[in-house]
Amino acid sequence: MKLMIFLGVTIFGTVGGWLGALMTHGNWFSGWSILLSTVGSFVGIWAGYKVTKNYL
Least crowded by CB within 10 Å, which of 23, 36, 40, 45? Predict the structure, then answer.
């Protein structure tokens, strides 16, 4: 369970930060990047939990 949650947070948090950086022309420390990275991390926690409960 911990591994799947860790992978979810890593993948979704990175993608969220990357999308935020795209919105602000490569600025990784912008408000959008930090906000979307945080949202992505919470989605990753949820997705990792769901994958563990449904498939493992």
Answer: 23
